[in-house]
Amino acid sequence: MGENPKYVFCYGTPAVDSITKLKLLDYKELCRVLGIPYGRKIGIVTYHSVTLESGTSGPQINEILKAIKRIKGIYWVLTSNNADTGVRTIAEKIKLFTLKNPKTATFRISLGQQKYLSLLRNASVMVGNSSSGLIEAPFFRLPVVNIGDRQKGRIKAANVIDVRQCKKKFIIKAIKKVLSPRFRQSLKKIENPYDKGNASEKTKEKLRTISITEAMIKKTFFEIKK
Questions:
Q1: Residue 200 pLDDT
Q2: What gap in Å lies between CA 115 and CA 123, rounded to an integer?
């Protein structure tokens, strides 16, 4: 990507460090705080619009909502989406869905870090196209159905199943697969490619050893000569 290799260090993401430092809520406390019916399995839906796919947000969220409605035994927590084009369409459809299905779904605009990570910890499945499905979810061995191209090309752990076509039948099939005991069993020894351990501390210590010069601040393209 044009960076000088001597200034590139692979330490993972500080986002995972937060998980080990926060006191996360257990299932019972999470149900109480979020008003989730106790004893139900929890599913998460976090779907963002894709900037370069104009006009697709409405049809795609419709397919996702139709799919999760067909999955029995799951109480769905649908979270707010990003601020890109199409955000209002997605939010309106999600709100309407939860209003029509109060016994099986709820909508949360903002959970905050502790409650969101606690949700990942206690959920049975995550559906959508959020980067948290790739970065934080593997820490909890949480199965993820990743829909569309928003995360295309990114490294994914074994907890992620990709659904390229945002169609109800493919989404339902993927959700049923990741909810199966066999799939859950396969995640017991999962490795998170974004978790190298103590990323924040390693980054801080490395920065102490580097002199930040004007040449570094002004971006130039480093070409590797063969």
A1: 87
A2: 12
**Domain span including residue 51:** 17-193
41-46 sheet: strands from edge to edge? 105-108, 74-79, 41-46, 125-128, 144-147, 160-163
Domain at 31, CATH number: 3.40.50.2000
Using CA atoms in the order 150, 152, 154, 160, what is the torsion angle rounded to 10 degrees? Answer: 90
Is residue 91 domain-resident? yes
pTM over 0.90: no
Chunked mean pLDDT (size 10), the chain, 226 residues: 85 84 94 94 92 75 96 94 68 93 92 94 96 94 95 93 95 97 94 86 89 81 82
Does 81 fall in a domain? yes
Torsion of CA 102, 107, 111, 115, to 10 degrees: 40
DSSP 173: H
Q: How far apart are CA 96 and CA 118, in angstroms?
A: 25
Beta bridge partner(s), residue 152 = none
Domains identified in the chain, total number: 1
The Cα-based distances of 150 to 16, 141, 201 in angstroms read 21, 21, 30
8 located within any domain:
no
At residue 105, the pLDDT reads 96
Give 207: exposed, middle or buried? Use CB within 10 Å, 0-12, 13-18, 19+. Answer: exposed
Position of tokens 């139709």? 66
Residue 9 lies in a domain: no
In angstroms and rounded to an integer, the radius of gyration of the C-alpha atoms of the chain is 20
